[in-house]
Amino acid sequence: PNSPFGADIMTGVEASGMTDYRNGNRTVTLRNSKRDWEVQARLVVAADGVESRVGRWAGLQTHASPHDMETSAQVTVSGVDVDPHRFSLYYTSEFAPEGYSWVFPKRNRTANVGLGISGDCTSSKRPTGYLDDFLGRYYPGAAVVSRTIGGIPCTGGLDKTVADGVMVAGDAAHMANPITGGGIVNALIAGKCAGETAADTFHNCESKTVERNLIRYSKRCEDRFGKMNRRCYRIKEAILNFKDADFNAIAAEIIKLPVSKRTPIRVLSAA
Ligand SMILES: Cc1cc2nc3c(=O)[nH]c(=O)nc-3n(C[C@H](O)[C@H](O)[C@H](O)COP(=O)(O)OP(=O)(O)OC[C@H]3O[C@@H](n4cnc5c(N)ncnc54)[C@H](O)[C@@H]3O)c2cc1C
């Protein structure tokens, strides 16, 4: 093992295939630039991101429809005047139809500026086009340091996140918050839940890694964020119908609240 906790960490390695569950194992084919090889695994955690192939190899439906795929573009810009203690969200169909734009300040006059829009809204203009317009309007002199683009599945969660010998985690299991598209924290929590479930299962040497024994993983995720994500999905579907005037009216209500009372629940109540 090359980590203090007994794990072998391999970089530059792709999982290129996985067999059905046989004799309590999955056989995973790995490859790097030089060779292919196989490993036997009692348990595989599919944390391979959007449109998870590993999940699909296990027979799970990991595809998201364009409607639920938040297509996002972000740049890190330098030389911008941003308040380092404030992050800004812009809800307007001009720059982010069925989504929102954000400005997250970083150190030394740099910021992450990005947006996510529903895949339904990308036919006339791509997210990068909307982002260029946004930058042109608000940060015309900014120097772009780096760019990130990608899709975030915002379905509220896969119906099924386990199969024999497999647990699916993070974007692979559509665990991002459907309203914000934020998926980092839930992906980390899911990783922890997967580790705990694996430890429970292996602790009992007789216990097989069959699907019914892994349901505990789904339950753990459900309790930590799954129920909330499904509620947020229903709210997201309602928000999609809002016009800019509705957002302005909501903002006017929120601004009346003292800062200390502007909690997510109150903001959503205003909506
Ligand atoms: C532009 C943009 C901005 C975002 N901003 C935020 C934000 O501010 N806050 C937030 O919380 N979330 C944000 N998100 C969402 C967030 O990035 C994801 O929810 C999060 O990264 C999910 O983590 P993950 O580990 O599940 O998947 P990923 O981060 O996608 O990681 C999956 C990894 O698996 C690897 N992989 C895939 N297939 C294989 C294979 N077959 N073999 C080996 N490796 C494989 C990939 O290379 C990748 O490294 C943003 C997303 C985008 C696109």
TrEMBL record:
UniProt keyword list: Flavoprotein, Lipid biosynthesis, Lipid metabolism, Oxidoreductase, Phospholipid biosynthesis, Phospholipid metabolism
GO biological process per UniProt: phospholipid biosynthetic process
Database matches in Gene3D superfamilies: FAD/NAD(P)-binding domain
GO molecular-function terms, A-Z: oxidoreductase activity
Organism from which the protein derives: marine sediment metagenome
Family annotation (InterPro entries): FAD/NAD-bd_sf, Geranylgeranyl_reductase, GGR_cat
This protein's record includes keyword Nucleotidyltransferase: no
Chain ranges of the Digeranylgeranylglycerophospholipid reductase catalytic domain: 68-146
UniProt KW Oxidoreductase keyword: yes
Protein name per its UniProtKB record: Digeranylgeranylglycerophospholipid reductase catalytic domain-containing protein
